[in-house]
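Input chain follows. Return structure tokens only.
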Amino acid sequence: MRGGGIKKVADLFETYRTRLKAPQKTVINTFTEVVSDVCGFSLRTSDVSYTPSSKTLSLKAAGPLKTEILLRKQELLIHMKGRLGASSAPNEII
């Protein structure tokens, strides 16, 4: 017998999940969805930019909105990891 037994389907895609990164637009769209779910207000995608090399989200939103997002930064980052995976999720929000 080759392969040594039955493998789970999820295990077959593990290499892709760990190597592939989410596109920049996907990260921004996911962030606006997470902000809507967690904070209760909507954020335009034009108010957010993402730098993949440093894994940093930059906000250009109005003062009160930006303050609320920065107060809940850790909670938002945890939700982003849950939706995108650890390799694609941003590490910082500024």
